[in-house]
């Protein structure tokens, strides 16, 4: 079958999904174009954590053989504090140390997703003893 300058050749695959309109079957085309070199079938995630501890904590655990991509971060601090977001540990920062005033925060969408090294966890460190801290992160694993 030929349409304009497109040539469609029948193959041997017998389980091609179709949409049926009336009595005509139309093959369903699915392409995996990906985003930033990552399969579009990557697993999305969203997580929110809340703490009052001055500690190193995990936002998203490591996934063997996959990277964690961050598309959005929201941070809210009840008291003046500093926070680092990193991979595996905060010595390799995804976002460097940020200083917040009491009742401060940020909402940051990434035009290009930030990512951690394959097999590393996404972590945070509240380095100044502080009050309540809330971190919300959205992204995908691929």
List keywords for this structure.
142 residues, mainly beta, 4-stranded antiparallel β-sheet
Model description:
This protein has 142 residues and is mostly beta strands. The strands form 4 sheets. Strands 5-12-7-10 form a 4-stranded antiparallel beta sheet, with no helix packed on it. Strands 6-11-8-9 form a 4-stranded antiparallel beta sheet, with no helix packed on it. It has strands at 2-3, 6-7, 18-21, 24-27, 43-51, 56-60, 68-77, 81-87, 89-100, 105-115, 122-126, 133-141. The two termini are 37 Å apart. It has a domain at 43-141: Nucleoplasmin core domain (Jelly Rolls, Sandwich), CATH 2.60.120. The protein contains no helices and 12 strands. Helix content is 0%, strand content 56%.
Task: Tally the beta strands.
Answer: 12
C-alpha-based Rg, rounded? 22 Å
CATH superfamily of the domain at 43-141: Nucleoplasmin core domain
Instruction: Give the termini distance in whole angstroms.
Output: 37 Å
What is the class of the domain at 43-141 in the CATH system? Mainly Beta
Which of globular, elongated, flat, extended, rod-shaped describes the shape?
Answer: elongated
Topology at a glance:
Elements: E1 2-3, E2 6-7, E3 18-21, E4 24-27, E5 43-51, E6 56-60, E7 68-77, E8 81-87, E9 89-100, E10 105-115, E11 122-126, E12 133-141
Antiparallel strand pairs: 1-2, 3-4, 5-12, 6-11, 7-10, 7-12, 8-9, 8-11
């Amino acid at each position: 079958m030929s349409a304009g300058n497109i040539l469609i050749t029948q193959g041997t695959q017998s389980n091609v999904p179709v949409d049926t309109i009336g009595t005509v079957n139309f093959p369903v085309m699915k392409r995996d174009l990906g985003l930033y070199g990552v399969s579009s079938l990557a697993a999305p995630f969203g997580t929110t954590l809340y703490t009052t501890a001055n500690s190193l904590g995990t936002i998203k655990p490591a996934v063997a053989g996959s990277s964690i991509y961050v598309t959005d971060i929201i941070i809210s601090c009840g008291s003046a504090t500093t926070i680092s977001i990193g991979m595996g540990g905060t010595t390799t920062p995804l976002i460097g140390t940020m200083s917040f005033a009491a009742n401060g925060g940020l909402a940051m969408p990434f035009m290009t997703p930030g990512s951690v090294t394959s097999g590393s966890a996404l972590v945070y460190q509240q380095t100044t003893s502080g009050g309540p801290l809330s971190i919300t992160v959205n992204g995908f694993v691929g």
